[in-house]
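As a warm-up, study this chain.
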Amino acid sequence: MSNVRYIRKIEQVSQLSAAEQAALQPVCDRYRFRANDYYLSLIDWEDPDDPIRRIIIPRVNELEDFGELDASDEESNYVAPGCQQKYPHTALLLCNEVCGGYCRFCFRKRLFMDENDEVVNDVSAGINYIRRHRQITNVLLTGGDPLLMSTNKLENVIRPLREIDHVSIIRIGSKMPAFNPHRILDDPKLPAMLSHYSLRDQRIYIMTHFNAPQEITETSILALYLLLKSGVVLCNQTPLLKGINSDPKVLSKLMNKLSFIGATPYYFFQCRPTTGNMPYSLTLTKAYQTLEEAKREVSGLAKRARLVMSHETGKIEIVGLTDYYIYLKYHRARDYRDEGRFMVFHRDDDAYWLDDLVPVDRIPHPVREFGHKPIHAMGPD
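Now compare it with the structure written out below.
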């Protein structure tokens, strides 16, 4: 049995000098810090640009003026305490407000700040809402990190969901296989419980959050192997992050490793313009170019993932880029009239988000742009 120690104060990170700790304290006062000794052990402290360090150790420029705390307006999605619904077939239960560590680029850092009331200890109201709405076939357990809950508490959420006949998929969003794989290795009750509820025709999915190849250790691979043996399906999702996975060679290495161990990429996210996230944000064109270059070095299994931004109006895929235009499409939409909608915008290499782009009503020179017959595209209304 391992004994992973959690660290909640920056002065407990002995690898940082006293001056570094003092400089970072104002950041920790604003955005909470949390790590553990397993995850900190993955850092090469001789490398100031180490990706694990960038993920978990605060940076002074997090205090730069940028973005909003709720960049995707999640607050408007609540249908019951601790329960969000943005799309017809999917509901979210925010069942925990704590993570194994706090990623510095977290888009829900507001949940870890004082006076947060979005996460509830009792999600029964949300489960009752899901029970009453038969169109909901997918439920995502999120937060915070559900796998930081005890196995008994987690089962008390999964059991009533599995008793709802129209809920076919239960997803658990978790970074614990990266932050602390011993949570899985040291608790045989967890894989056994998941095995009991991940049925042949109603699977449990674990949505892992590996951001950098260095997180995929022999320990984490073993934890994922136990999860796979329990009958769950593994998928990985990560934002594209400056200095962490923004090098195409690093990103392709991550994509390949994930496909080799059975946690194939599901989504690559445009880093949300959340307050404090400027040090991690890539422009839309840079994110697209990075992923497209990385795809050249991976198999078809590894390149199935879509590059999307979780905008307040829906999940919008970045599907193409030329010298003049950037092409987007609604992969999921809050308004059903936007489902599948194709959009054309002027290329802007300084744009980070949909709201930064200027739409075009039509392509003026399609032959020059594409080199063949005109392509008709629908711009925003």
